[in-house]
Design goal:
Number of domains: 1
Shape: elongated
Number of helices: 3
Strand content: under 5%
Structural class: mainly alpha
Number of strands: 0
Largest sheet: none
Length: 84
């Protein structure tokens, strides 16, 4: 479970094209999925399709987040900083 996530401009631009009620449903579904991993079941095929296009971006960011918590790749000898 995460405490935050990135909400991209493209997500906003996509939801702005929807009627207010649908935009609210999709936005809440994005938030729910990004923070808890729980997927929303939509009654609208349009909302389902839009969510399926957004979901891989959230998944990729979650992978990067988890990898970042591990501290990243250790430095190799060729990356040592030399002082003058």
């Amino acid at each position: 479970m995460r405490d935050s996530f990135v909400f991209y401009r493209s997500f906003k631009e996509a939801t702005d094209l929807l009627p207010a009620e649908d935009a609210n449903i999709l936005t809440r579904a994005i938030i729910t999925y990004a923070l808890s991993g729980n997927e929303t079941k939509f009654s609208s095929s349009l909302l389902t399709a839009m969510f399926l296009l957004i979901k891989p971006t959230i998944d990729k960011n979650n992978i990067l987040y988890e990898n970042g918590k591990k501290g990243g790749r250790p430095k190799s000898n060729s990356e040592e900083v030399y002082e003058n």
